[in-house]
Amino acid sequence: MIRLEMSRHSYFELFLSTFRFIHVHTWIIQLFIFLSGITMALNFKNLQPISEIMLCITGVIFISALFFLDELFKSFTTGMWEQTFKYDLRQHIMMKLLIFGIIDMVIVILLSLMTKSIVSLPLYQILVYVLVPYNIVCIILFSLITIWRKQLHNYFLWCISGSICVAVILIANIFKIYEIRMLYWGIAYFITTTILGIILYSQTKIIKWEVASVW
């Protein structure tokens, strides 16, 4: 009986429960974004600059992340807690972070594999080129959302998210960041990944405290 009770509250059950909370239109949009990214990658040509190809892939990942972000924080934008008697809001958001992170990573890897032969770069280098700007955008967005969590609305979330993504792409294009040595890219990846991990950990602690204060 104890083993059966534990299995009913397993991480796999939480994974399935969280999937049921994610609206179907989110997956339809992500499928459309993924297919658009594949179409774009197939149309890349060897004569295109590496920076242009990297920015296109990064833009696709940014768009995917924006729709995931909207789904991730819909409890705050709608003002309704997304939880069940078995799992609370913090657990659902942590599992959503895992699910969305896996999906985005799959998109990044597949698009990188498709462009690897075109840009003639190692796979790890393409991944770092994409993931460093992605980490920076996530750090900025999660930090701002933490500050304005109580006043968070859909239009504000989309405006600030879109502006930050466009700004990062413009800065990357203006300063020719893809000409920087790979050593500095590796350092930037390590630093941004560490900072992002710390922010996500603090986010889950804040959400746990807010849910507890409500109840």
What does this structure look like?
With 215 residues, the protein is mainly alpha-helical. It contains 9 helices and no strands. It has helices at 2-8, 11-21, 24-42, 50-72, 74-78, 89-119, 123-147, 154-174, 182-214. The radius of gyration is 19 Å and the shape is globular. The two termini are 29 Å apart.
Overall 3D shape: globular
What's the alpha carbon Rg, rounded to whole Å?
A: 19 Å
* Count of DSSP strands: 0
Unreliable spans are none
Structural class: mainly alpha
Order of helices and strands: HHHHHHHHH
Q: What proportion of the residues form beta strands (DSSP E)?
A: under 5%
Q: What's the N-to-C terminus distance?
A: 29 Å
The overall pLDDT average reads 78
Counting DSSP H or I runs of 4 or more residues, the number of helices is 9
- Percent helix, as a range, is over 70%
For the sheet with most strands, the description reads: none
